[in-house]
Design brief:
Radius of gyration: 31 Å
Biased composition (Polar residues): 34-44
Largest sheet: 6 strands, mixed
Number of helices: 17
Region (Disordered): 25-44
Pfam family, one: UnbV_ASPIC
Helix content: under 10%
Distance between the termini: 53 Å
Structural class: mainly beta
Strand order of the largest sheet: 5-4-3-2-39-38
Organism: Neolewinella lacunae
Number of domains: 4
Protein name: VCBS repeat-containing protein
Length: 1120
């Protein structure tokens, strides 16, 4: 969490609202139904009359120890092995409660009889495990607190051993688990493969004063790096090895030496080497850890290798297979409110300069929103915005389980915090005043409760998201009867009545837990199901680590038994499989943690199946041989070793409200025969200060870097687009290079596009061949519009530097014998004010046997122009197509003889959710009269009025004069655009809108445009380039796409989920997505362009160029 009562930081914003755009994979359509239905079971009926509360006073409070109100753990366990799941509730300060499940939703408090009651200290999480391997579950309770708690022994953790007679005895010291480190949670697993359970203990510092300060050191060579170790020894997490029933702290030897405010821990084999790894979700600025098991008793933190970004204030976490591909995915929670007004009222703890510092000093890319990290087989990419689960307020426990038994894992989120300690008005006006007088002391307040009354307090609802089966989720909280406002923290699921659906137990602060009965089975709306219990090996009787895959048709449903899930809690019940409409399970593949396996065929559904380790064998489970990938990445890149080096420039220093950087649009990429030897060569442009590079293809199909072919002073240009073409009809390839960027002032010579004439394989700069073109451009496309046999040029203007969103001219350049004249005004006048062009294509679209020109851009609709009577005129502006377009491809995808438009857009994995009736707007003017354009991004509020999305702090950075009018954040947060500037000023401002963000196929048929969004797999990132090819050799054109955008404003978070997408044409307008790990093509960096190149050895190469990164060459091979 980022909130501190007396610690104010400027903050960033995010936004999400309901949208209407949908895209789904043809072979994975959303399931029918509205999600599960739950009924709240009152304590008077169940007997679960427990309540956790914390006694705050002047000495013991949030300001002295920020984790006091985080809640207390809940454990699910069948302690007496009667087949019914019992419940254990930790109390932070008071007596713990153990409830025996009597059946029929009746529970009996057996705490006193069991010997588990008041323990003293401040208790946090609970872990259920068979620590002494006697077949009965035990309870391990974590405790935390200040150093004073350690001194009196009340911070030592507790181990309650199950005596098999309904009683427990405390034995932590006997087993070596009585750590006095301030701990949050423990998890038990077999990390060293010796068959017994080891223990990972999640610990935290107790000094909260410097939680958001970076810790760096400087080496002798001047290099600055992050300090990784603890300040005090007890701050590091601990790894305990089980040595025959006695646990030994092997943390240091194992490489577990860290410092972080860890709030949850999850176990999973992240790199598929049959060894369990450890994910630690850290609060505040310290990045999360991914400790990869090296197989020799040690771990290495490889978080940055596997994750492109993580949550900032990481809270709870859970792991499950969300898309049924056999790979487990990860959900981590943060604190971003769903409601935009509430977002802007609350402190966020992050600003652009601070974010950049975290990245620079090795803290990684961290963003304050929930994240849904989808496993690609080589790493993870965040689809939370696409899924619609990114903002759920101050959230604690994510629980991933199939609550409606439809085969797809759903998501429950508990959230709420008793006090809005991040309320900015409270911080600025109340807290600051109290602090100036010495703080919340007895001298100022009669009781501490009097002080607490001054802090805003707002209960919020928990969330339930139903998995639609297409990477998107639907909020079914209200429909499932879960919308009770609360302060909820630790939560667990269990099938409390053994009816085949999962019930929910939600821990609350200051009121009894919510116990929800799942009525899915009883209502007749449930699919079939299977529950699996484990009779494990001698040293691991409960079978922790058991992995089971259920195969139903072509679908794999994967589960693994690691019961610590969410936040502070443990769900020790059976593995649960929802099976949809399946009548039987075709095959059940089982892998035990020691490597033994078993396979069961034709397994009946709707049963509790007990698996026995004794029945397993050492036989490996055969798998079908994987086909050879379509693409390979040669290690030597065949000599194509270009690395794009972006020059340092921060667009946001000049326009802090600009939504993305426009100085990072390169590099340019062109393919052509530069030296006339019959082989295709590659030109890749440089950023400002970097030379472009020409790679000549050799007879062996490799590449050799040519001597720099351009004048040395041309390194000052930013190369963003390039084109090889024969301009003068002499049979060789000349070169046009478009100059972009956003650094210099408008009309600076650095924006002049360039033409290089090919003279015997050498390129001579020919400045007289072009008119003065000092627009920051982005596209150049050849077109013989006048049918005279030579190639004319369309040049797209990208931006008016420093004046976002104002656009420069675009151009039509007529080829007059190898020199070009500007014919825009006379022949294509629309180009003079068309907008921020990003993509141009030309081909037959409208079915009139004449080629059209298609143009798209940022804040632009897709427009189609026809050349008639010597002039280009607008033939069609596609309805509801205003977007953030990046790429266009014209291709006949269905073989009917006419082209469709394949348009690459921003995608749906973004906080913006516009629709034609609820567009995202941009208002631009010099609102404060200081000579600079102020771009104000807005979204529709509940009443349809346009609300600025940015925070007050960011708005004041752009326009400080607004502070006098909006002294209080609450006033600013609820203000719409007219409240900020007045209706008259807004009416005079430039107004732009976006109503469509899906990458989409458009077809003109029967006089109308038909829009078909690409599958969701193609909506996960911006699409920067689209190419076609018959990659699987079935006679149908397929699509290959690349794109990311690392230059997005930090308030939104960089778009980095793209890996490259291969869509195989299945005919009839349907597409199949082939996973990257199967086809072998990976464009995982900040990809800008993609081109194919025939190679002299008969192969086809595909070149990807990346901003601020290396180019990549992939070799395509036809399928066997």
């Amino acid at each position: 969490m980022q909130y501190r009562v007396f610690f104010l930081l400027p903050f960033l914003w995010f936004w999400a609202c309901n949208g209407s755009e949908q895209a789904s994979d043809a072979n994975d359509a959303p399931s029918a139904g509205n999600g599960p239905t739950f009924t709240l079971q009152p304590p008077s009926t169940t007997g679960l009359d427990v309540m956790n509360s914390v006694d705050l006073d002047f000495e013991f409070n949030y300001d002295s120890f920020a984790y006091l109100l985080n809640g207390a753990g809940i454990g699910v366990l069948d302690y007496d092995l009667d087949g019914l799941q019992d419940l254990f509730f930790v109390s932070n300060q008071h007596a713990h409660r153990l409830f025996h499940n009597e059946g029929d939703w009746k529970f009996t408090d057996v705490s006193t009889a069991a010997g588990i009651g008041a323990t003293g200290g401040f208790c946090t999480g609970v872990s259920v495990a068979d620590v002494n391997a006697d077949g009965y579950p035990d309870l391990y309770i974590s405790r935390t607190g200040t150093d004073a708690k350690a001194a009196d022994g009340s911070r030592r953790n507790l181990l309650f051993l199950n005596q098999k007679d309904g009683t427990f005895i405390e034995a932590a010291r006997q087993f070596g688990l009585d750590s006095d480190h301030p701990s949050t949670q423990a998890t038990f697993f077999d990390y060293d493969g010796d068959g017994d359970l080891d223990c990972y203990l999640l610990n935290t510092p107790t000094d909260f004063k410097l939680v958001n300060r970076v810790r760096v050191s400087q080496a002798a060579n001047g290099a600055i790096s992050r300090v990784l170790g603890p300040i005090k020894p007890y701050e590091s997490d601990q790894l305990f090895r089980n040595d025959g029933g006695k646990f030994t702290d092997v943390s240091a030897a194992a490489g577990i030496v860290n410092r972080g405010f860890g709030l949850s821990v999850a176990i999973y084999d992240f790199n598929d080497d049959q060894l369990p790894d450890i994910y630690v979700a850290n609060d505040y600025v310290d990045p999360d850890h991914l400790f990869i098991n090296q197989g020799n008793g040690t771990f290495v933190d490889e978080n940055f290798r596997y994750f492109r970004h993580t949550t900032l204030s990481s809270m709870g976490s859970d792991i499950a297979d969300l898309n049924n591909d056999g790979l487990a995915d990860l959900v981590t929670l943060d604190m971003l409110a769903e409601d935009l007004v509430r977002q802007k009222r609350l402190e966020n703890g992050m600003r652009p300069d601070r974010y950049n510092s975290l990245v620079r000093f090795g803290y990684g890319h961290q963003f304050m929103r929930n994240q849904m990290q989808i496993n690609t087989g080589t790493g993870f990419v965040d689809y939370a915005e696409l899924a619609g689960i990114a903002a759920t307020d101050w959230s604690w426990a994510p629980l991933l389980a199939d609550f409606d038994n439809d085969r797809h894992v759903d998501l429950f989120v508990s959230n709420g915090y008793h006090y809005d300690v991040g309320d900015l008005d409270f911080i600025e006006f109340t807290s600051d005043s109290i602090r100036a007088k010495g703080g919340a002391t007895r001298q100022q307040f009669s009781t501490y409760a009097d002080y607490l009354k001054l802090i805003p307090s707002n209960k919020v609802s928990n969330y339930l998201y139903r998995n639609n089966g297409d990477l998107r989720f639907t909020n079914v909280t209200a429909a499932s009867n879960l919308a009770q406002p609360s302060f909820s923290t630790s939560s667990v699921y269990a099938d409390l009545d053994n009816d085949g659906d999962l019930d929910l137990i939600v821990g609350n602060h200051g009121e009894p837990p919510f116990v929800y009965r799942n009525e899915t089975v009883e209502s007749g709306q449930s699919g079939s199901w299977l529950q699996v219990t484990a009779a494990g090996g001698q040293a691991n009787p409960l079978g922790y680590g058991l992995a089971v895959s259920a195969f139903v048709g072509e679908e794999e449903i994967f589960r693994q038994l690691y019961p610590v899930r969410g936040f502070l809690g443990t769900t020790q019940g059976p593995l649960h499989f929802g099976l949809g409409n399946a009548k039987r399970i075709d095959r059940l593949e089982v892998r035990w943690p020691d490597g033994k396996t078993q396979v069961l065929e034709n397994v009946a559904v709707n049963q509790i199946l007990r698996l026995s380790h004794q029945e397993a064998s050492r036989k490996s489970i055969p798998s079908a041989p994987a086909p050879a990938p379509l693409f390979t990445y040669p290690a030597d890149q065949r000599g194509l070793n270009f690395v794009h080096v972006e020059n340092p420039f921060d667009d946001f220093d000049r326009q802090s409200l600009q939504p993305r950087m426009l100085s990072r649009e390169g590099p340019a990429l062109a393919v052509g025969d530069a030296n006339g030897d019959g082989l295709q060569d590659v030109l890749i442009g440089g950023a400002s200060g970097q030379s472009a590079s020409l790679y000549l293809q050799t007879s062996a199909g490799a590449f050799s870097a040519a001597t720099y072919p351009f004048p040395p002073d041309h390194q000052r240009f930013e190369d963003v687009a390039a084109l090889f073409f024969d301009a003068d009809g002499d049979g060789d390839q000349d070169l046009y290079v478009a100059s972009g960027g956003n650094e210099a002032a408008p009309d600076d010579p650095v924006y002049q596009d360039r033409f290089y004439r090919n003279e015997g394989g050498k390129f001579a700069y020919a400045p007289a061949a072009l008119p003065t073109l000092r627009s920051s451009t982005a596209q150049v496309v050849p077109i013989d519009f006048d049918q005279d046999g030579d190639l004319d040029l369309l040049v797209g203007g990208r931006t008016l530097p420093g004046n976002y969103p104002l656009a420069p001219r675009s151009y039509l350049l007529r080829n007059d014998g190898g020199s070009f004249t500007d014919q825009t005004q006379a022949i294509f006048p629309a180009l003079e004010s068309i907008g921020m062009v990003t993509a141009i294509a030309q081909g037959q679209i409208l079915g009139d046997e004449q080629a059209e020109v298609v143009i798209a851009g940022e804040w632009m609709p897709i427009q189609v122009f026809s050349f008639r009577d010597g002039v280009f005129t607008l033939s069609s502006s596609i309805p509801n197509s205003t977007g953030f377009w990046h790429a266009l491809l014209l291709a006949d995808l269905n073989g009917d003889g006419s082209n469709e438009i394949v348009a690459g857009n921003e995608g749906l994995n973004t906080r913006f959710k516009p629709s034609p009736t609820r567009p995202v707007m941009l208002y631009a003017a010099d609102f404060d009269g200081n000579g600079t354009i102020d771009p104000i991004l807005t979204v529709p509020g509940p009443a349809g009025n346009q609300l600025p999305v940015t925070t007050k702090a960011q708005m004041l950075k752009q326009m400080p004069g607004l502070k006098k009018r909006f002294l209080r954040t609450s006033t600013y947060a609820s203000a719409d655009i007219n409240d900020l500037f007045g209706a008259e000023e807004i009416a005079q401002a430039k107004q732009l809108s976006v109503d469509h963000l899906s990458s989409t196929i458009y077809k003109f048929a029967d006089g109308q445009w038909q829009a078909t969004p690409l599958p969701n797999s193609a909506q996960t990132s911006p699409v920067r380039a689209i190419r076609q090819g018959d990659f699987n050799q079935d006679g149908l054109p397929d699509l290959l796409m690349v794109g990311n955008d690392y230059g997005v404003h930090v308030e939104t978070g960089r778009a980095d989920a793209g890996n490259g997408v291969l869509l195989l044409n299945a005919g009839d307008g349907k597409w199949t997505t082939l996973p990257n790990r199967e086809h072998g093509f990976w464009a995982s960096l900040d990809a800008r362009n993609l081109q194919s190149i025939p190679l002299s050895d008969g192969r086809t190469g595909w070149v990807v160029v990346n901003n601020a990164g290396p180019a990549a060459l992939f070799l395509w091979s036809p399928p066997n």
